Amino acid sequence: MTAAYADRHDGGPGSDGPGRSSDGGRGWDASGWDGDDGPGPDLDVAVVGAGLAGVGLGARLRRAGRTGFTVLERADDVGGTWRDNVYPGVACDIPSALYSYSFLPQPSWSRVFAPGAEIHGYVRDVVRSEGLAPHLRLGTDLTGARWDDDAATWRLTTSRGPLTARVLATAVGRLSEPRVPEIPGLGTFPGRVFHSARWDRDLPAGLRVAVVGTGASAVQLVPEVARRAASVVVLQRTPPWVLPRGDRAYAPGEAQPDRAALAAEAERLFDARIAGTRAEAELRDRAQDHLRAQVPDPALRELLTPDYAVGCKRALFSDDWYPALQEPHVTLEPSAPVAVEGSTVVAASGARYEVDVLVLATGFETTRPPFAHLVTGRDGRTLAEHWSGGMTSHASTVVHGFPNLFVLDGPNAGLGHHSALEVIEAQIGYVLGALDHLDATGVPLEVSADAEAAYTQEVDRRAAETVWLRGGCRSWYVDERSGRLTLLWPGRAAEFRARFATFDPTPFEGTRIRAVGRMSGDR
């Protein structure tokens, strides 16, 4: 398998039309589902989202012989964040060798840190090689999901009509809904204005560009934009810690790094996420050495030095961020924008900048995912209401009051030191085990309130010792209302896999039980 599929495929992974798959899986046409009119739901599993989590789950379902599933995707292509983010310089910030499924590794990445288009191509390759096209429904929004307790079924509404499913698995990710700041006058800006995840592909060279934000996207795009723009101003609210990247192209025929060795190295980085440890101090020294080596001007270096612990916010990796900020046509504005007046961006410092383009590298809605408003559980409460004090779960995957719901890449399912695929693959294993249990018992699975509360307490206790809560910063890892760490797993990836890559029915005992028959039709 090669990433060249992104270039050679004619119409995207769903171009063959949904129809019926050769293995008997149900498809969809414009009038609705073409399954029989029997008593069972239309689908065994409805998966929402065709990014790395949704496509990975689909691949594993197929490999397990399960064909009665479909993957709903609101966009016209698969790939999730790697489809949406096409800004110049977009790339993985985890070594490429760790950024593919362990059951389907990509053996020929072009660089140490793969470009975004190459990762997108890999996801499309997986769709093709795993035969997922008949199971995809692209251009289909989920507009609502409600648990029907009497039928023990999820009733979904979509932009293409209603359907029912025994199991609902959300795989919408944390970086799917851009966060747009409320800046007075922003809507009246006469030039081009867009979020970094909605990049204007027709942007010409030679313009005056303002970039709002200094997070992961900005650190990647600013050096590239500076090569084409007449001028660039970077509006910085808080400076990031930046570590050396060491990216390079692989030579033709060069062996890829050993995945296991890279994984072990990544795991060791978790020690630096515990506040007050020697590992944390060593990581800070490394970041400060990188800053001193690349920024000789002490005044600029002071503006670029964070006042919080390394890793409290997302640690960034770049060898060209600091050099780009020292280009003669690039200005670092050490304050946030407070107003837009015509084509003028006004900073909190009082500085004013005339620009033609305004790029909002301002992150995403992470701790309060919009999809949670669409999902209604057993007692008529939405997932958003259940999460009003911050996202909670058991095993970072199941939620009390929401039977047969599995949330991938959701509460405490991220890693601040390793590849996201480590947790995603464990969650997929958990879902597959749960499906086997459902087949055996015919009883809906609802985790107990006690199990969810105990897991939440464990996460909170362990998070209290980390730089994410003790590092002195505000970050998108932490729920802004409750102050709880709700995005990251406060432990090592190996521990998460050991505990949650297989399904344990014990936390589900004692919940309300309703016996139902198995779904008719496809497994």
From TrEMBL:
GO molecular function: flavin adenine dinucleotide binding; N,N-dimethylaniline monooxygenase activity; NADP binding
Basic and acidic residues composition-biased segments: 1-11
Positions of the UniProt region annotated as Disordered: 1-41
The keyword Calcium is assigned to this record: no
Biased composition (Gly residues): 12-27
Keywords: FAD, Flavoprotein, Oxidoreductase
Keyword Oxidoreductase: yes
Homology family: Belongs to the FAD-binding monooxygenase family.
Protein's UniProt name: Cation diffusion facilitator CzcD-associated flavoprotein CzcO
